[in-house]
Amino acid sequence: MEEFARVQAKYSEEAQKRVRPEGADQFQTLEQSGSDQLRHLADDFWANHAALDALQSPLKAGDRPKFLIAGAGIGGIGAAVRLIEAGFSADQIRIIETAGGIGGTWYWNRYPGLHCDVESYVYLPLLEETGFVPSQKYSSGIEIRKYLEDIVKRWNLQDKILFRSKLDKIEWDENTRLWKCDITTERGPKGDQKTTFKVEAEFVWVTAGLLSKPQVPKLAGVGIEGFKGDAFHTARWDYDVTGGSQEEVFPELSKLKDKRVGIVGTGATAIQVVPCLADYAKELYVFQRTPAAVYGRGQKPTDPEEWKKIAGQPGWHEARRQNLALNISNCAPPGVPDLVDDEWSRQVAYAGLVGDPEFAFVSPEKIPEVIGQFLARDAPNQARLRARIAEIVKDKETAEKLTPWYPVWCKRPTFSDTYLQSFNKPNVHLIDTDGKGVDSVTPEGLVANGQEIPLDVIVFSTGYRGPSADGADPSKRAGVEVHGRNGKTIEEAWANTGAATLHGYGIHGFPNLFWHSPLQSGVGANHAHVLDVQCKLIAYVLATAHQKAGGLNKSGVTVEVEEAAQEAWSMKIMQGAGRFATVTVCTPSYINNEGKAIDPTASPQEQMKQARASPYSAGLNAYIKELQDWRDEGNLKGIEVTAS
What we know:
Layout (H helix, E strand, L loop, with lengths): L1 H17 L8 E3 L6 H5 L8 H6 L12 E4 L3 H12 L7 E4 L8 H4 L11 H4 L3 H4 L10 H14 L6 E2 L2 E9 L4 E10 L5 E9 L1 E4 L8 E3 L2 E2 L1 H4 L3 E4 L5 H4 L17 E5 L5 H11 L2 E6 L5 E2 L8 H7 L5 H13 L22 H4 L12 H26 L3 H6 L12 E2 L3 H4 L5 E5 L7 E2 L3 E4 L2 E4 L2 E4 L13 H5 L2 E3 L6 H4 L19 E3 L11 H23 L7 E5 L1 H13 L28 H8 L8 H14 L5 E5 L1
Parallel strand pairs: 2-3, 2-8, 3-4, 5-21, 8-22, 10-17, 11-20, 12-13, 12-20, 13-16, 14-15
Antiparallel strand pairs: 1-9, 5-6, 6-7, 17-18, 18-19, 23-24
């Protein structure tokens, strides 16, 4: 007990070092920066503008598609495929994508060493439908991107996507029962010719990524503009600066051999990038605010004989996905094998973030006890992690600085067999800022701990704007101006009550509009699984509604969440929100909105409103079962369907 208390005191001490009064405002997103140079860092380096300009546009002014999907990542592609599987035609679907290609995060991110951190056998969508066999247990970014491109071709969607385009605004027209949509498209050899046009759509489905807006810290000094060297964000890796090619998983970064490189950040991206930089940079300086929890990866090629066992039975893919979720929520029945059997499936305390049936509904007086139980559940795991770091990193002082002091649910755990080992190399230097972060930028480099570090290249591995920012309003997260019935925005609709949805995907007063969001939904470590659950559900709702109204080709169908139903669901979410007080012991990160997820000074009314923005508290598997029970009733309870 004495050691347990010491560790908890250390957690609190380290978390307080990192709390800043400005919270998430200590960062700025690249696309919304007032700096031309920072905004340029968000440009699409990968688009073949000449080839895209030559394509016939699948969407033009005055068109009226049945389904307009915003986003061509895993969520948007999955939405289109599940609609087709539900009986709709690919010709009824149009997809808008800001990038010059498909893949979402797997389009934008092409940094050296990029792999998925979740087993590919459960992460990649539609594996059972396509029969695709991943080459490794953890797929590379290149393999994932090419696989998603193949899915688009397989379901005849390649000519249904309008690239380099953004859905700016949608407005519901009660008379026509259509969404009036404003779209901006970029054209020209550099994508610098912008055209805005209008279309109408019967249904709009927004699939903004969970983490899609790259950010950098607001640094004092001369700013990035005043730095004489090169700077970029890992979400837009610049191979012109480093050498190598985005078509290689582990490229030769030959242009760095005489360079002093600084990488800012030590999260899930950095632990993949640092070993690659360490192999080529003359000197590498790793600027750390908070150490990552780095477990072993255990990468291996897919064995054909093992694959026959994995994919040998119908329904294997969903069963394996749910098996991982069961283990993470620590609720697998006795005797049920751990099918994934990796470090993710052993993180039984991660339920502190994603929910579980045991602590789904917690009375306020029980919250400290529940937090204590999760801390105790995580204690052996954390002791094992600290021992691993001490064993791998040869320099004792460096090992101590690389040791994380927070529970596993506070930051996404990372997995690598090379990151910690990199700090044993003589050219790799850890600049630990003791929770403060980098101080400023100078023309020659970065200042941390009051000391200037001269650099030739700065790599920002500083993540993305978190999903709980802006009150978890899905329209703001997607960057779409939304006006529902009577011109109301979602912010206005939620002003008095707080968040209100049915099952997390639909909002009363916003007919025929659907979202992908962690808000009031089941969540998990495998976000691709969460997205597919939502895709299947929404496609089911739309197909069933059309069948009730007269057929899948019927126009003038309106599908809207009933106010009473969304209020009942929102109350259920609020009642389960107490168990997520686990984040109050966390070090600041996007998971707890940089320490501002819960405002202890807020009035009881405001706290209840905040609680309604929580995920489903019983965990992803319980959420899936609840949705299946709802579907089995067969009458779209809580949804009003009308037809003209």
